[in-house]
Specification:
Elements: H1 7-37, H2 44-72, H3 80-104, H4 118-140, E1 144-148, E2 154-157, H5 159-165, H6 169-172, H7 183-197, E3 202-210, E4 216-227, E5 233-242, H8 244-297, H9 302-328, E6 337-340, H10 341-355, E7 360-365, E8 372-375, H11 377-393, E9 399-410, E10 424-433, H12 440-443, H13 463-473, E11 477-483, E12 487-495, E13 520-524, H14 528-540, E14 544-548, H15 551-560, E15 565-569, H16 577-585, E16 593-597, E17 615-618, H17 623-633
Parallel strand pairs: 7-9, 13-14, 13-15, 15-16, 16-17
Antiparallel strand pairs: 1-2, 1-5, 3-4, 4-5, 6-8, 9-10, 10-12, 11-12
Length: 643
């Protein structure tokens, strides 16, 4: 440096250097934290402040350089280009200053910061108090409050967010919000940000997000723009609330409501089915018995006998369909007793051997020891027949059908048991075929009511739902295994009777019933045609018959005549058969009563299971069935009704 340099010039040089370093340090101190927090674009005021100090530092650096160059040249003029550079840089500094004050005007709390009077100071103190209160609320609220840049970078993270997602603020600030979502959720985030950028005031939606440990969280999200005083969005606020429990509760309510609606629909269907069955079974009883009457008269007329057999077969099909519908809707009345499954297999084999077709190889495998369950024998037979008929239909080109009874132990953890059963030893029926088999999708729906894969007019969709209803009502369960092109096996598990009584079967009695000996039967039936059928059957077998069409007429006849047994329909107008019997038993408690019905509607027992002390015959019945039942119930000693 020239020895002609004066002390003031040296001080000027050192002062500019010191100021340059100070301003540069301040600019760095502001910019570096902003960059780390990802707020270089969001925090415009801080960026403007950093630019002021940066441009000032560069300006002072230019002054120091010119002073240094002037000192070195010992009074010689400095190149004019540097002078113009300094002048233009001062213009840049002024422009940055204008930008700074423009941004600053949008930040009211900064106004009066240089000097505040008592009133301004009170307002600032109140603002600080409100701000501190708001910060406390935000920090301690249970809802997650998150700040984002317009690009989705997290800039703020309250305590609620830490508790909800498991990330601390230090771990997640500066990272993309996409860390909380899967691919679908990230696309939802981008769409929400796009809508905010395009001017929407807020976006509200529900989405699945993920905690730090990978746990899914169902969240309700409220996304809104953070705007400056000019209305320009500078960031995004997100309020997230955990709605996992609420959604689970809503799903449970929906499931309960669906089950309730299903139960209501089934109840309505049951009432409809019961009403139809009551009338239809009366009609079937008339058809069946008049067909049998005609068949007796047509003996020797082969053509007429053949026609009547077709009518009888059609009636039997209608009877079976009605019973399926009632079983499915729990509208029938069952009579459970101890049933030997080996005997049930033998009966079903005898029926199927005549009807299933020569193209089916029918095999029965009884258990080595008696296997006894407590169930309605007719329903056990119905289960086996329904499954066997389904198996036959699955083998149009022929195959093998196996019916088997045995005992099986289960541990309670078996899959695909419908419904599930506790561990134990159970009686088991197996019905296997080598037919077409089913796919898993079809097998998943086969027990649903009215579900069928058969062509229109070939199936009702009630067969397997009826099987399911019978088995589940008996405390049992089903398992289905099927493979397309291989075949299907149904396994039916039923509780065993370990100390069986007299095991019975469902086979109708074929022996001739004992004739009556003049006993008086009071028949109460509101269907006149059916009443005539019953009268004809009983009178032809040696009984004396009194007929009434309702309860009042029956009481009048009972008061006038000697009666040995009351044979009454269950459901009748004005007075049910059960009520009629109660009135008569008030004066003649020993009078036997035989109820008949195709649909009892729970009038004979606390449930659709028949009370043990009640004699009952199900409509439609044949003459043979009715006479056997009457013989079981009617006493040998007459019981007086009238005086």
């Amino acid at each position: 440096m020239s020895d002609r340099t004066t002390v003031p010039e040296q001080l000027f040089l050192l002062g500019n250097l010191g100021t340059m370093i100070t301003y540069a340090a301040i600019a760095v101190a502001i910019a570096v934290p902003l960059a780390r927090a990802g707020q270089l674009r969001a925090n415009r005021l801080a960026v403007a402040t950093a630019l002021i100090f940066l441009t000032s530092a560069i300006g002072h650096g230019l002054h120091a350089y010119l002073a240094f160059a002037g000192l070195e040249r010992a009074g010689h003029s400095v190149a004019i280009g540097w002078v113009w550079a300094l002048a233009w840089w001062n213009v840049v500094t002024a422009a940055v200053g204008v930008y700074y004050w423009t941004v600053r005007r949008g930040h009211a709390p900064l106004r009066g910061a240089i000097y505040t009077g008592p009133h301004q100071q009170r307002l600032l103190d109140e603002a600080d108090t409100h701000r501190a209160t708001l910060e406390t609320v935000v920090a301690h609220t249970d809802e997650a409050i998150i700040g984002l840049t317009m690009e989705g970078i997290i800039t703020a993270w309250n305590g609620g967010a830490e508790r909800l997602f498991g990330y601390s603020a230090a771990e997640i600030v500066g990272r993309s919000a996409a860390i909380l979502a899967d691919e679908k959720g990230a696309a939802e985030q981008r769409e929400g940000l796009r809508r905010i950028v395009q001017g929407e005031r807020g976006v509200v939606y529900e989405a699945r997000r993920f905690a730090k440990d990978g746990r899914p969280i169902e969240t309700a999200l409220s996304v809104a723009a953070i705007r400056d005083r000019t209305g320009r969005p500078t960031g995004i606020s997100v309020v997230a609330r955990d709605v996992t429990a609420a959604k689970e509760a809503a799903e449970r309510r929906r499931a309960v409501e669906e089950r309730t609606h299903q139960a209501q629909r089934m109840e309505s269907l049951g009432k409809l089915a019961g009403g139809v069955a009551h009338d239809f079974n009366n009609i079937l009883a008339i058809i069946v018995n008049y067909t049998d009457f005609a068949a007796e008269e047509a003996a020797g007329n082969e053509a007429l006998e053949t026609d009547l057999k077709h009518v009888r077969t059609a009636a039997d099909r209608a009877i079976n369909l009605t019973r399926q519908l009632l079983t499915f809707t729990r509208g029938d009345t069952i009579q459970p007793r101890d049933v030997d499954l080996n005997a049930a297999l033998a009966e079903v084999q005898a029926m199927l051997a005549r009807t299933i077709g020569e193209h089916i190889n029918l095999i029965t495998v009884p258990s080595a020891e008696p296997v006894v369950v407590h169930a309605d024998p007719g329903q056990i037979q119905q289960v086996l027949l329904n499954l066997a008929i389904n198996a036959r239909d699955a083998m149009p080109d022929g195959g093998t059908l196996v019916l088997e009874a045995n005992v099986a132990a289960i541990d309670g953890d078996e899959l695909d048991m419908q419904p599930s059963l506790p561990a134990g030893t159970y009686a088991r029926l197996l019905v296997s075929d080598t037919g077409e088999g089913m796919t898993a999708d079809v097998a998943a729906h086969i027990f649903e009511p009215f579900y069928t894969t058969k062509p229109r007019g070939k199936g009702t969709g009630l067969g397997l739902s009826t099987v399911y209803g019978i088995v589940s009502e008996a405390g049992g369960s089903l398992n289905v295994y099927s493979e397309p092109g291989v075949g299907t096996t149904f396994r039916i598990y039923l509780p065993m009777v370990t100390v069986p009584g007299a095991a019975t079967t469902a086979a109708p009695r074929q022996d001739d019933p004992p004739p009556g000996s003049g006993q008086t039967v009071l028949v109460v039936e509101d269907e006149p045609a059916l009443a005539r059928v019953v009268t004809r059957i009983l009178a032809g077998a040696g009984y004396h018959v009194l007929t009434a069409t309702d309860g009042r007429q029956a009481l009048a006849l009972f008061g006038q005549h000697d009666c040995d047994i009351l044979l009454t329909d269950v459901i009748m107008p004005e007075m049910s058969g059960r009520r009629l019997a109660e009135i008569i038993h008030g004066t003649h408690p020993d009078l036997p009563v035989l109820y008949m019905s195709g649909y009892s509607n729970g009038l004979l027992g606390t449930t659709h299971v028949l009370d043990g002390d009640i004699a009952f015959i199900e409509k439609p019945f044949t003459a043979n069935e009715l006479l056997h039942k009457i013989a079981e119930v009617v006493p040998t000693v007459r019981c007086r009704g009238g005086g």
